[in-house]
Structures are given as structure tokens and as C-alpha cells.
Amino acid sequence: MKTILITGGAKRIGKSIAEELGYENNRILIHYNSSDMDAKKLQNDLIDKKIETFIYKADLSNESDIHNMLDKITKDVGQDLDTIINCASIFENDSAKNIEVKNFYKHININLLAPILLSKHLSKIHRKDHDNNIINIIDQRVMRLNPSYFSYSVSKYGLWGVTQMMAQEYSPSIRVNAVAPGPILANHDQSTEMFETEANNTPLQRQPNIKDITNAIKFLLNTKSVTGQIIAIDSGQHLSWKTPDFIEN
């Protein structure tokens, strides 16, 4: 049994990860910020299935909130925490031309700095007789940059770099890897039609299954020779090559 902290674990991809890993008899620690009802419902659902589950409310843009959450986790599970899945993030559209400092720092603090601080905690308390893991949920766009969602993309691109550097520094005690989703769920700026068009324009021409995120995580957790890697769950979206300058014969 592993003790797994999932940030942003009450909704969307985080919820799916919490459920699927919980069904494998792991102890699940769910972080959330504003999704109180979703977090409590998920906790109750997992407990009903005899899965040991804790929930923690914290604003990941606030360092004090992060430390308070980690103190509560230590009181609940001691030093048993061996896996952190950094899934929480914000995703707001801006560009290099209209960037606002407050919005930029918010993306950096939640999407990049919070995973670094949580990982630092695990590096200090981890048990050397465990297989300890950090898995960062990034985005396929780090392998295919474009100027949209500038602050978000910078934060996720930074997290991919951090993943590789922490894999170097935390070896051999902690393995650090990343999963990069593609068009799995529509974002708040997309209509259903826009999302379906995006998914259908991937090389595999289909929407990736949300459970494939957890399948990739399970592979990383079970394959103890892997660190510093990224797996794209995106139906090949990061390979898209039919750009406007391409003329098909």
C-alpha cells in the first residue's frame, strides 16, 4: 500500500486519479482549494469502498497554507507519505503582449512553485525503505510550444525542467516523472464543438481516455527503473505537423 497525496484531487483529472489509485488499496490524501462539496463527496465515496482517505483544504498560491497542510498530513499519516502527484493547476489565457504580473505570478506559484515545495517536503521526510515517487501532471504543449496561454505554458514548461532536475537531485531515494495530458477534458474556454474538433485533429483522431492518465501513473509507480521521463497522453497531439505552411500533395 502506498500513501499518495494528489493535489487538485477533488475534480476532473485529479478525481479520476484518486479513484483509480484508491481502488488499488492505496491510502489517498486529497488536496483541494474551493471544491469543498466535491472533496467531501469523493472522500465519503472512497471510505464507503473501505479506502482510507483524508482531505485537505489549501490555497497552493499561499506558502503558509502549504506548510499547514503538510503539518496536518504528518499528524494523520506520520512519515508514511511516499508519493505526491502534483495535479492542481490554473489555466487562464493570456499572451506575452498582454501579460499581467499578478496573473503570471499566480500561475507560477500554483503550477510550479507549489510542486517544488511539496517535493522538497517529501525529500526531507521520505523513508529510505520505500519506493518514493513524485509525478507531475504537465501538458503536452511543453513539447509543442505555441504563444497561447502564455503564463500557463511558461509554468508548465518550467515544471518539465524541474521534473528533470529533481530526478537528478533526488536520486536514488525518490523517482520523479511527468505525465502530459492532451485533449482529455474541455477547458473553460472551449465549447463542446471546439473541444471535439481539437481531439479529432490529433494524429490518432480521438479523445484520450481520462483513465489512461492513471494507467500511465501506474506504469511509472510500478516500473522502478524509470525517472526523469515524460509520458504524453494526448492521442499524439504533440506530434501534430500539418501546420499552415504544409501543402499536402
* End-to-end separation: 55 Å
- For the largest beta sheet, what order do the strands appear in spatially? 3-2-1-4-5-6-7
- What is the CATH topology classification name? Rossmann fold
**What shape does the CA trace take?**
globular
Rg for CA atoms: 18 Å
Would you tell me the structural class of the helices and strands? alpha/beta
- Total number of beta strands: 7
* Level-2 CATH architecture: 3-Layer(aba) Sandwich
Assigned CATH class: Alpha Beta
Number of domains: 1
Task: Determine the number of helices (DSSP H or I, runs of at least 4 residues).
Answer: 7
Per CATH, the superfamily is NAD(P)-binding Rossmann-like Domain
> Average pLDDT, to the nearest integer?
93
Describe the structure.
By secondary structure, the chain is α/β, with parallel strands linked by helices. It has helices spanning 12-22, 36-48, 63-77, 101-125, 150-170, 192-200, 211-222; strands at 3-6, 27-32, 53-57, 83-86, 132-137, 174-181, 230-233. The protein has one domain: Rossmann fold. Helix content is 43%, strand content 15%. Strand 5, helix 5 (150-170) and strand 6 (174-181) form a beta-alpha-beta unit. It is globular. The termini are far apart.
Which short descriptors sum up this protein?
Rossmann fold; 43% helix; single chain; 249 residues; globular; 7-stranded parallel β-sheet; alpha/beta
Summarize the structure.
The chain contains seven helices and seven strands, in the order βαβαβαβαβαβααβ.
